[in-house]
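Need a sequence for this fold. Nothing fancy.
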């Protein structure tokens, strides 16, 4: 039976494909205070601004492509049972070939009704007046600040069954996602790939820190795990 690798990914892996992150700009995301464009209050105050913001993000996905880190993670599926748990809302993991991706914070290419219900695929601009079948406005399928993370329970269960944990491109400072490391079994190997690693040293000697960007660090880990050079 293949070993199960669980990979937690954050903004750092997508940033190398050209997707900007708000944490790189003092809390501003493409010139906006994040609470204006990523909170229920922001949507209530100015829904057109919020919809336009995510329309721009959605369009940007057509201009970027998966990078070497994404493709290296997808290659792991040849030798391992792989689950990616990502904080990113883009589809770069899927486009690189990864087949088991859990999006903690939602997906840009899906929308849902403001009244709830299941998300639906969406690739065009979303505007006021786009309603669900029950006549309610559609909104981005994004977990905003102050909202519950509905996939968290699933992510905890997956992480608790990991044989190997890899963390890529995340500061491990954003909760509840950062708490997932607390649910892995004691003693399992943990690889942490980040140019500015927030974790160093481990009393159980099971943590390997690779202080590199994702495109350089992930191939190093994959080579170590598979015995091949990418």
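Here you go.
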């Amino acid at each position: 039976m293949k070993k199960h690798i669980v990979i937690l990914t954050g903004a750092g892996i997508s940033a190398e494909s050209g997707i900007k992150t708000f944490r790189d700009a003092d809390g501003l995301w493409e010139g906006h205070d994040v609470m204006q464009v990523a909170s229920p209050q922001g949507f209530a105050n100015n829904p057109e601004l919020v919809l336009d913001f995510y329309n721009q993000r959605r369009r940007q996905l057509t201009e970027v492509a998966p990078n070497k880190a994404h493709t290296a993670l997808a290659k792991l599926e040849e030798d391992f049972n792989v689950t990616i748990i990502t904080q990113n809302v883009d589809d770069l993991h899927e486009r690189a070939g990864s087949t088991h991706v859990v999006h903690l914070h939602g997906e840009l290419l899906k929308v849902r009704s403001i009244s709830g219900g299941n998300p639906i695929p969406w690739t065009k601009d979303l505007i006021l007046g786009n309603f669900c079948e029950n006549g309610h406005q559609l909104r981005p399928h994004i977990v905003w600040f102050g909202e519950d993370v509905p996939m968290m329970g699933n992510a905890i269960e997956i992480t608790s069954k990991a044989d190997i944990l890899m963390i890529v491109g995340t500061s491990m400072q954003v909760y509840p996602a950062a708490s997932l490391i607390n649910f892995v079994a004691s003693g399992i190997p943990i690889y942490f790939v980040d140019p500015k690693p927030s974790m160093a040293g481990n009393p159980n000697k099971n943590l390997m820190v690779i202080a590199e960007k994702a495109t350089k660090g992930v191939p190093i880990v994959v080579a170590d795990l598979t015995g091949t050079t990418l």
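For context: The first helix runs from residue 11 to 15.
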